[in-house]
Design brief:
The structure is a homodimer.
Chain A: H1 11-14, H2 18-42, H3 49-60, H4 65-71, H5 76-88, E1 92-96, E2 104-108, H6 110-132, H7 136-154
Antiparallel strand pairs in A: 1-2
Chain B binds a DNA duplex (23 and 23 nucleotides) through α4.
Chain lengths: ~160, ~160
DNA sequence: TATTGTTATACTCTATAACTATA
DNA sequence: TATAGTTATAGAGTATAACAATA
């Protein structure tokens, strides 16, 4: 869903001063990066970051090695290796493309699906514990902020 | 305008339901990780992530290789190598510890100090642009949220 | 001939084990 | 003998270049 555009910068009237915006941006960025880092550290390291990323891409839709390499901004040989490791671990499946036999279709195995679910559960758990320890007022603020941050992250 | 995202009304002193907390935590975590990723991609890759991390530690205070290895959770030989590269690039300086000649004190050079400043400036710029495009009301919410998130990230 | 994917080779970051020098 | 740091060697991930199969 596309929420009403908040693209107009009418900050000149009632918003923050440029230096206040700069300070806020710096603080927010740092907080996000620290939380991100903590979450990554907490959650189990059953798959390496680059492998996890590839699994997430394949969760959206089956893809070819070439597509994955482009999306992940790595070379084709590198993706060949990464995919090879995932296939060996039984997390990714290779299928020949019947329409173009040069291509290979990669998809997740059921094991990978449940592994992703489990990793996300652990990551959310870390955050959940911390959110639950906040006051109702703070939770209220974060709920409003969450929608804004999500929009910022995706734009 | 504050987009009212189907938010359940709650009793003032009870806070969110467990499932609402879980949903909020998941959304917040994801937003933070995406923003973190975007920021890292945007900012120049003049130093590798592990090198940047070490430089930040040394910014707080001069340290020994052993301390750095423990803080960064890498092996001592690995830290020797990382530090070696930084010394070669003129970003870190070695000094013998006069009280215990087995130890080495590592500290930042002036070049490193200005490099860190420049990297942060670029990272903040990415976030600043996005914050400045929000409405004053949204900026207000983020300002309150920022303090809470910072506390969560550091606890 | 162009494209998809793999193999060949090299470089970097990481780790464990062995070594040097101080304490 | 124990500790701080380095070197030796090996295991992954990444890259570029060369190759095989298919279009």
């Amino acid at each position: 869903m596309t929420p009403p555009p908040a693209r107009k910068s009418r900050a000149a009237d009632t918003g923050l001063t440029p230096s206040a915006i700069s300070a806020l941006a710096g603080e927010l960025r740092l907080a996000c990066m620290r939380i991100s880092r903590r979450v990554r550290f907490e959650s189990t390291h059953v798959v390496a970051p680059h492998q996890f990323s590839v699994l997430c891409r394949l969760e959206d839709a089956p893809r070819t090695p070439g597509e994955l390499a482009e999306i992940e901004k790595v070379s084709a040989p590198s993706m060949t290796r990464t995919v090879g490791a995932l296939v060996e671990r039984g997390l990714v499946e290779r299928t020949d493309d019947p329409s173009d036999r040069r291509q290979v279709i990669l998809s997740l195995t059921p094991d990978a699906v449940s592994l992703l679910k489990e990793i996300r559960r652990k990551r959310d758990a870390w955050m959940s514990v911390r959110v639950s320890h906040l006051t109702p007022q703070e939770q209220e603020i974060l709920q409003q902020a969450s929608a804004i941050l999500t929009r910022v992250a995706n734009e």
